[in-house]
Structure formats: C-alpha cells, structure tokens
User: Fold Glucose-6-phosphate 1-dehydrogenase from Hylemonella gracilis ATCC 19624.
Amino acid sequence: ATPGRLDIVIFGGTGDLAWRKLLPALYMAHMHGRLPQSTRIIGIGREDWDRDAYLQFIQARSPGLIAPAAWSPTHWQRFLDCLDYVALDLAQAEGCGGLSQALSTDALRVFYLATAPALFAQICARLHADGLIDPQARVVVEKPLGTDLASAQAINAEIARHFREDQIYRIDHYLGKETVQNLMVLRFGNAIFEPLWRAPFIRSVQITVAESVGVGSRAGFYDHTGALRDMVQNHLLQLLCIVAMEPPISMDPDDVRDEKLKVLRSLRKMSPSDVKRDTVRGQYTAGVSEGAAVPGYLQEADVPAQSRTETFVALRAHIDNARWAQVPFFLRTGKRMQKRQSEIIIEFSEQPFSPFGQSPGQQANRLIITLQPEESIELAMMVKEPGSGMNLHPVRLSLDLQETSRQRRAEAYERLLLDVVKGRLTHFMRRDELEAAWRWIDPILAGWRELDEVPRGYPAGSWGPAASSALMAREEHGAWFEA
Ligand code: BG6
Assistant:
C-alpha cells in the first residue's frame, strides 16, 4: 500500500543521477498522482547551499530532460514545492547534520544512495548513529556495487549492519524497463514458447546492448570501471537471467530471485584460456557517430593517455544446467557503437529435415526482442515466396509494443522508485544474486590481467572490433544478427 507520508532522501542530490534520472522520474510519478500528497524529497549534497540554491541548480538542469509531452510548468512548480536540501559534507561533519530536523517523524523513509559506493558504509553508519533508520525505512543502492567480489561483499556486509535484507533495494534499472518485465510475461504467460525454450530447440542466444554515446563527462568514474563492470556484471547478466531462468512459482521477490540465482550459479567459470578464447575487449578510436566526427576514448576529457579501459566487451557464456547445456549465450555491449540498439535474439535450431530441399532463403527461426530504442517483439519465420516453385523466404511477425497499448509507459527509474515506495522487491537484486554475478565476473577480470593485452581498437560508429565478428565466425554459420 502507498503510505500516507513519504520522505525520499537522495544522497548525491547534486550528482548526475539525481538531476538526470531520479528527479525527472519523481516528477513524472508526482504529476500522475502516484506519490502520496505529502511527499518530500530531500537532496543531500556537499555544497553549502540553501534550499533556493538547490532549486535553482535543479531548475537549470532537469526540466530539459522531461519529455515535452509530459512537461507542465504548473506541475513542475508543485513538484519543486516538495523539494528540500540539506548540506552535508561527509568528510567533515559528524552525524547527519540537519537531516534529522528535515525528516518528518511519521513518514516512510526512503534513503537513496546515489553516491560513490565508497561512501555507502559511512552514510549507513551515520544514519544509524542519528537514529534515523526505523524498521520501515528502506535504502536504495545504486550500482556499481563493488569492483569485484570481495569489495561487493564488504559493501553488502556494511549495509547489512544497519538494514535488514528486506529493507535493501539494490537497483539495476534494466529490471525496471517495460520490455524486460514483459519478457517474463512472454515466457511464462504464453504456452507456446516454454516447450521450445531449451536445448536442443534453441541453438544460441545473443544479447546486445549497444550505445551510440561515448563516455561523455563520466571518465572519472568510467575509466576505473570499464564495460565489463559497468554493463555486463549487472544489466547484461540480468537480461541473461530472465531469458534463462526456470519458471518461478510466483512473482514474490524470493521466488523470482531464487530462480535467477540458480542461473548465475550455473554460469560456467572461465579459465584464463577460456578468457583468451571467448572474450573480446575493445576501446573506441576516433570515428563518425551519427553523422558527426567524434574523438577516440583516449582523447576524451579526463581519460589517461595510456588507459587500457575497455569500452566494449563481447563474450561467449555457457550455462551448465539441463535446460541450456551446449547452448552458447553471446553477450555484447559497447559505447560509441553504430547505433543505440538493445536486443535479445533467440536463435532456434534448424528444421531437422526440409522437404523443400536446399532453398537459398531458408534460415532458422529467430525471436527478436528489442528493448531500445523502440520496444518490439518479432518472430522471424519462413513463408513461401510468391510465384511458382516452393521457395522459402524469411518474414517477420512483428509486434510493436508502443502500438499495442495507449497507456503511458513509465521510464525504468519511475517504475522502480514506485516499487520501493510500495515495498516490492521483485525487480531488485538480492545480496546472494549480486555476489554470484561477481563470482562469475572475477575470473574474467583475472584472465584479462594475466593476458595483459591492450584492448582492441574499433572506430566510433562501428559494431566493435573485428575480433568480435571473429568470435562469432568460429560458430557454425555464426554471426551477430542484425535486429
Ligand atoms: C548505466 C551505465 O548503468 O547504464 C551507463 O552506467 C550506461 O554507462 C547506461 O550508459 C545505459 O542505460 P540505458 O537505460 O540508457 O540503456
């Protein structure tokens, strides 16, 4: 149930995530009446500002990020009325300073930690010391939770000193995307797919999350992170889990998360020679992105000249369980790729026998689930080419998800923030799930360290390094499919 009063406290209130994503998402929820009347949003930042200065800061940034169709100056003004600011320099002050006074005594408290994870432990300890964590309070923690298994375990342990597991919302905004949630309905709400959703009827799965943007102004963070930690450890593995999990017995948080955990635990750990053979690291060089000349990663602001950080990863993964034995999962993500395109392509096996002989157009069926930029589900299948003879020809049964429903489609952050308010944990990661993901990632990081190779260059605006196509070319008829 939606509580009567709500205080949302955003640590990192002046940071990118807050003004780019969280405040626009909260504005949308507020405008559509999805938040309690008495909601207050308290930004916390290091800057020694008063409330007016904070409002000005937000005013100069967030409105431009709200979809024009949803923009209403009147609503924006009402939304700003909910906002407050508390200055807190964690390096200086003791406790939580003015936050105690700013909080209501009878409101549901949501603490959103949108700071560097290095600060999480300190923030939790201070909230605790000031007695601000009541049994209903919730804490939302942003990725990246750690840089490897050990650091993730340490962060989890610190947070767990002050919050119970059912108070902790580890956010992965991909789990809030409409199409990602829809994938569960596609799989578990339609009887026709489930019998075929396994080896040997599925031959391979390809998951691509391609971005056309570069590192932008985030090099300070990104250069220590790289694409494997920034995207694969969380977003791509979560997509893989939803594709590969067994049907959960209900949508209850633990029923869903138990099944995802099993998938993560079944991922085959890579040895250094597997890493050499089955992974590709790339880094973009200067090129043309969406019609404009753009610099290479090494020329971007704040990137060290010798940086070996990868901006692209492609890899071949295996899930060692009864459903997926022998079915390769190909994952690929990168910045400055040809276009923004996120998709999951399920490649079904070929017909065991064709009465039509060798028809040139014949190909195996594919199910193409596009997450971005448009949301769609397509089934590539064979039809007869009109005319004489029995020639086969691929066509697509296509479902445009925007067209199927006129209802407003909320952005991922809005949906997930409302889940936090409603106490729904299903689309958040549990502690063991996060750690299992790192358990699989760590050997890849170790393999790369051992190989000590410079990432392979790929021109901005391309589909990644040649080695990524070569990884696929090893497979029988292998290639990355075009959505
Ligand atoms: C974030 C990464 O988690 O996801 C960014 O830190 C990336 O580097 C972003 O750009 C992509 O999200 P989306 O929703 O735009 O696909």
In short: Residues 431-451 form the longest helix (21 residues). The radius of gyration is 24 Å.
